[in-house]
Fold this protein.
Amino acid sequence: MPKDTFYITTPLYYTNSTPHIGHAYSTIAADILARYHRVAATGRTHFLTGTDEHGQKIADAAAAAGKPPKEFCDEIVERWKRAWRDLDISYDQFIRTTDAVHESAVQQIFLKLREQGDIVAGVYEGWYCRNDETFWPEAKLIDGRCPNPECGRKVEWVSEDAWFFRLSAYRDRLGAHFHSHPAWVRPASAWNEMASLLRGGLDDLCVSRASVAWGIPIPGEDKTIYVWLDAICNYITAAGYPHDMERFATLWPADVQLIGKEILRFHTIIWPALLMALDLPLPKLVFANGWITMEGQKMSKSVGNVVRPAELTDRYSVDAIRYVLFAQAPFGVDFSFSEEALLRRYNAELANDFGNLVQRVLSMLVRYRQGVVPARSPGDELNVEFESALASVRECLQDVDFRGALSAIWERVGALNLYVEQSKPWVLHKAGDAAMLDGTLYNLCEGIRWIAALIYPFMPASAASVWSALGQTGVPGATWEERLRWGGLAPGQTVTMPPSPFPRVEREASPA
Ligand code: ME8
């Protein structure tokens, strides 16, 4: 079976923490792409996410909670799954690095690489940061501490017999891949940063741990496999490598791998070198999303400045958060989170521009036409702009440009609002111009039907509510190919009033 499935992945999240909106951002991005590819008729789609459960950091967190690591992870994983359910994340597969199939696949990968001479014996001596599970060269340390600005913890001197992946041997091939694929890592700033890192040369990578018991054992030895080697292989083990090569062939290479920019080196240097060693094709695109920051610092558990999704969805709805996070900044660029900005955007773009439009149009339809879609009037040209908006949204989402897609949709929302103002259905009604009123109401309802289909990848619940209020069946807009034809709304269709999709939220009174 050849590759026939659009394959999207997120990072695997550490189970020493529970989701904040930074994690949600990457996962919702993957969900938008997955939903888009499902409705945009590109064929099959597979969306993978999951959890990264091995390593000292997780073992320490479990010990602090007084639980065996696996039991600890079992509980935390439920919280990740619940958070994704609450945010309407439609993943197709959730992998845990403690899954038996993954563990055995990683052991097989390790043994294969060792057998073919890509993993070799050596001695490791160096400075190790437990929190980041990373070895740091002495020159990088800042006052004897981890140089990761989010961490800054004391590093430890580690000396042990070890196994090394011969990363340095892949430098030239990696360099050639970067140069022949200038868009395989995005945004361009990420490609530049990694290409220049490659020019600086590569050290071999220590891929065993004698001191870490909570990990995948190296068969026949008292060591475990380095947690990053273990975790990064999930993208292929989840797809069936090496136990189900038939399935694997339909999925691999991944079409889009979404990550945060702090893990670029792992995903665009180490990961492709491992794939080259396994003689597998490289992912088509690795896209590093920007960071959500708070007062200039990355939102993270270690900084202690996290906002949990539930704190926001209680007040604004899930779809509002899914919208606002992507309307605010281009994907790949950092942006600062503030509830103030969220509230402003929510009330202006969702409650006012979109929510009011739906309520206003459908209540006119109920008032003037008893909720029945009237006949379409020939000769209007509204379809032209909607068809070109559809093309722009497709182009943007194909290009992982979420904000571009939303702005193309909101241009149409704005145009429908203007159309209401200019065509004045209430005046047509008063004047008894029935044919004109019919045509106008038809266009408005059909325009709203299109908007519901187009917003579906971003806001599935609101899309579904408007879609079914218009008497449409199935997943909103599935598929765009079939459902997005101007005139698809059948005259005679009865429409119901949906609940207001985005009720206005008033600013909380500031404390006196
Ligand atoms: O790094 N802004 O897991 P992790 C935007 N287990 N995205 C953010 C973010 C923020 N403030 N904070 C987190 C790991 N993220 C490893 C990955 S992959 C084989 C192993 C997102 O739990 C972003 O995608 O620390 C980042 O890369 C990921 O969460 C890190 O999650």
Notes: Residues 15 and 73 are 6 Å apart (CA to CA). The chain is about 50% helix and 15% strand. The longest helix spans residues 339-369. The longest strand covers residues 119-129.
